[in-house]
Amino acid sequence: MSLSSLRLAFLRVTTRTFTSTSRLAMSRPVKLTESERVEFLPPLHTAKWNMVPGRDAIKKAFLFNDFNEAFGFMTRVALKADKLDHHPEWFNVYNKVEITLATHDCQGLSVRDVELAKFCDAAFEPFQK
């Protein structure tokens, strides 16, 4: 297990915390380190996640047969995003869903973005032709 993988597992538990009136304590995400970028981003680029020009963010477009498939995919991603407390920027027109991932709390890419991108790809697999 690599050091970055260990960090990813540890970050899922907690790194930095803050207190909220509505929640006890939530992990505060941190930007990916250079070594994590080397480990995590190339597989995402291979899966057609692209860097967003002018931002530390990744983006991908997903095409479906129809709106029902696209909306079903979005629903599945929304449920996962809610569990991760990490919500995508997305745009949907009929059978196309465009997703942009970045972590606003750290103003860039975090392990949450990597995890949600991998989930999106897995959720899309049943719809591929």
From TrEMBL:
Source domain of life: Eukaryota
Pfam entry (one): Pterin_4a
EC supergroup of this enzyme: lyase
InterPro entries linked: PCD_sf, Pterin_deHydtase
Record carries keyword Lyase: yes
GO MF assignments: 4-alpha-hydroxytetrahydrobiopterin dehydratase activity
Chemical reaction(s) catalysed: (4aS,6R)-4a-hydroxy-L-erythro-5,6,7,8-tetrahydrobiopterin = (6R)-L-erythro-6,7-dihydrobiopterin + H2O
Keywords in alphabetical order: Lyase
GO process terms (BP): tetrahydrobiopterin biosynthetic process
CDD domains with a match to the protein in the record: PCD_DCoH_subfamily_b
EC number(s) stated in the UniProt entry for this protein: 4.2.1.96
NCBIfam families on file: PRK00823.1-3
Classification via HAMAP family: Pterin_4_alpha (MF_00434)
Protein name: 4a-hydroxytetrahydrobiopterin dehydratase
